[in-house]
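fold-stage: in
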Amino acid sequence: MKRQNIELVKVLYKSMYRIRRIEEEIIRIYPTDKIKSPVHLSIGQEAISVGICEALNLNDVVFGSYRGHALYLAKGGNPRKMISELYGKASGCAKGKAGSMHLLDVDKGVMGTSAIVGTTIPVSVGYAYSLKYKKSDSVVVSFFGDGAVDEGGFHESLNFAALKGLPVLFICENNLYAIHSHHIKRHHSDNIFERAKTYGMPAERIEDGDIFKIYETAVKCLKKIREGEGPVFLECFTCRWKEHVGPGDDFHLGYRDREEVLLWKERDQLKKLKSALGPVVSHEIESVIEEEIKKAFEFAEVSSFPSREEIYTDVFKD
């Protein structure tokens, strides 16, 4: 493998390993009730956020959904602030008042995630409109799930973005389920990315979850956007390994089969990256990340909860 490819693999592995291990620690700690908010885990879906964010510039910004741990960390969000936020501590990225579903780190370009399906899509388009007005060379990336394409704001946003030629990359993380409802049971046809084309923008689909394909496609799409060609839509098939919300499995509910998830686990992109690096290099990376994670959770443990007065800040009032 060429040296530049090895360097890319190292970066991708470091980011993806950090996300996976942090969420595994969340799973371990969640039963203790130290984590004060529901958690929608990204395990199984990390390759999308990692592949896309590695293609971004520092001044690019992202908006996401409630399943946003991977996005927050892949874009450079602070692990200590993220874990503290889950613990409800004042040192969290939202002062302990927002929890797992509302992560943000403006300095890193993480402009916010939301618990309400599809709500960050029009906000991301508005931000992209402001960038074009200012003649900025930054790009907005809007992440959302397949459930969000049923929202009216999704269609209005795509139409407006195409109409105005806005610098926005739409990323549909299609894990096939809106909670427990398969998207084919909600839609007449399996054509989410083709719908985007009807609004007048290029659209592609990546079906196998390959992290290199995601990265390379993102690089290509972002180049078009920066050259002023307007928005681009990318649909990425993926699989969440855990239940919709929480740290457990949910096969007993009967809406999907265990074999469906096992097929995705067999092509786990984290294992693929580790295999490409070999045991020595991957272990070096893992050792650094493990220490970082340990300190992040220790930081959250000793941090203080917000004061009573904090409830009156960051609110709209007369």
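fold-stage: in (second)
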Amino acid sequence: MSPTVSIIIPCYNEEKSIRILLDAIFAQTYSISAMEVIIADGISEDNTQAEIAAFQDLHPDLDLRVIENPACIIPAALNIAVEAARGEIIVRLDAHSAPAPDYVERCVDALNAGLGDNVGGVWDIRPGTKGWVAASIAAAAAHPLGVGDALYRHATQAQIVDTVPFGAFRRELIEKIGLFDESLLANEDYEFNARIRESDGKIWLDPAIRSVYFARPTYSRLAKQYFNYGYWKWKMLRRYPETLRWRQALPPAFFLSIIFFLLLGFFSPLFVFLLILELLLYFFILFLAALKNKMLGLPIAIATMHISWGGGLLWSALTSVFKVKNG
């Protein structure tokens, strides 16, 4: 018999995307009778609950439960859902995603084959809404200049990796390494995977395992998202400094260089010249990428990601230092 699968989903105010996700789950090639869906809702204030109820009315044969997440943070939602889950295998999805029809089946096959302790696939990143801004953000979120060597955004070969989004794992893994860390409001997946690697486990990425991910629709929401990523990345790096990768060091270094040249520019025009030169080179490279992708909004999106992520990490580091001194 097929192993039972619990699909867990953190959710908050997702009225525009939750039905897309639920329809994609219902379309899975994996047996409906062997799946359950648990949505941990952070007490949504929009029509999310109504959209879920409407789906349930149409598809009563899918075991779907909604549980409250009063903490309103993603790791708490995941932990509440895991504790409520009854399946042998846990598949984590996101309310901004839509898995391919064979997503669950391929995840289960990879786990059964022993390819990894946590398995996942590649995002097909789509615009969060209509228009050139959203299209530029989606392109930036999948472009190597924007995300470096984050293989889950553009890998073409199956391989062992550091992390995967929306991982699938056996319930015993939680018993071995523990639940998601609720002190991290972002980067909880990466921290979870770091503990898997520390316990000699393997993270397996297969580009045949695919899901659509809807990117943020505006530059302001993109900036907020990446600032949070950077802020909480520093918190995680304090515990796991060995997990720092070159692509993650570049945005804060770039951000620092801008501040450095700006401050020293008050004392010498040489540093103003160096700042202008750096920015011209930076945006020239981004402009070439924009021409190649025929998307002129791409430089703004990538620069927003870099500066927000780097600024968030540096702000987190700075506030941590002051907290230690004052403590």
